[in-house]
Amino acid sequence: MKSSLLVTTALGAVFIAAPAFAQEAVTGYADVDYGNINFDSDFGDDDANAWSIGGAVEIPQQSWGMQFDVRYTDADDFTDQGVIQGTAHVHARNDQGLIGGFAGFTDSDVSDQTWVIGAEGQYYFEQSTLSGSVGYGQIDDADVDIWGATGGLAYFIQDDFRVDGEIGWNQAEDGFGDLEVWKFGVGGEYQFPTVPISLFASYDHQEFDESIPGDLSSDAFRVGIRWNYGGGTLKDRDRFGAALKPLGGIIGAGFPFF
After folding, report:
1. For residue 177, is pLDDT > 90?
2. Counting C-beta atoms within 10 Å of the first and last residue's C-beta, which end of the chain has fewer, N or C?
3. Which residue would you say has higher pLDDT here, 41 or 8?
4. 3-class SS at 168?
5. Partners of 200 in the beta sheet?
6. For residues 205 and 187, is the Cβ–Cβ distance under 8 A?
7. Residue closest to 55 by CA, chosen among 230, 187, 193
8. What percentage of the chain carries pLDDT values higher than 70?
9. Rg of the chain's alpha carbons, rounded to an integer?
10. What percentage of the chain exceeds 90 in pLDDT?
């Protein structure tokens, strides 16, 4: 896979879309972040650092819309390889919430391509948003099926200051058995009042089941900076813009590294 060519083409399509559709109130963002993940078990621990660049664009069509997002992650683990992800979302949306579906992929030079499809939704309260998704994935050229579900709550302390929490579950099945993973995460984002620039951070903890010996778990931190185009506050983006997670949150950004 020519990762550099793919990510250049995909990111270009996402970022250029804004001026091309400006009259249709297209919104989106572009960002860069740094992350660290630490794996801990009875046999010791290991960690990896990663840089990521990505973006998303929301194209509204009256009561429904489309979101497209893409991300490239480069990790300094033992493989020292990159990962590219892309997702297309189609949804119906009103002032009470959103319901829709998504399809996406993740690919790297060191693992088979993984495809994911699923359903996702949001319910809007005055100062918070309840979200959830379910999905199914399959790894190409391998007899591995992936099932997942996530749920989250975002609370807006101010229209430009959001904190959130999330819980997720994944199960991978192959001919030799199952692997189950639980994920718990918190995060937040703050946009400056005079410029469309925001800072964001997140922390995720994962617990792997006993099918992996050694009581394996992981902890991941991310910090980043984001340019939000199309105008509006973070709450506006949540209600009208590109607010859906890549791959529905079923597989994390940077998989298989993160």
Report:
1. no
2. N
3. 41
4. strand
5. 189, 224
6. no
7. 230
8. 84
9. 18
10. 60
- Dihedral, CA of residue 240, residue 245, residue 248 and residue 253, to nearest 10: 170
Among residues 108, 127, 96, 94, the alpha carbon closest in space to that of 251 is found at: 108
Q: Which two structure tokens, joined as six digits, stand for 136?
A: 């199914």
AA letter at 60? P
Q: To the nearest 10°, the Cα dihedral for 98, 223, 47, 78?
A: 80
Q: How many residues does the chain have?
A: 258
- Are 59 and 65 in contact by the 8 Å Cβ rule? The answer is yes
Report in angstroms the alpha-carbon separations of 224 from 12, 18, 190: 20, 21, 11
Q: What does the DSSP 8-state code read for residue 94?
A: -
Q: What is the spatial distance between Cα 132 and Cα 210, in angstroms, rounded to a whole number?
A: 27
- Owner of token pair 């992800």: 85
Which residues sit opposite 212 in a β-bridge?
Answer: none
Using an 8 Å Cβ cutoff, are 113 and 104 in contact? no
Average pLDDT over residues 138-167: 93
C-alpha span between 252 and 106 (Å, rounded): 10
Q: How far apart are CA 235 and CA 191, in angstroms?
A: 10
- The 10 Å Cβ neighbour count of residue 172 is 17
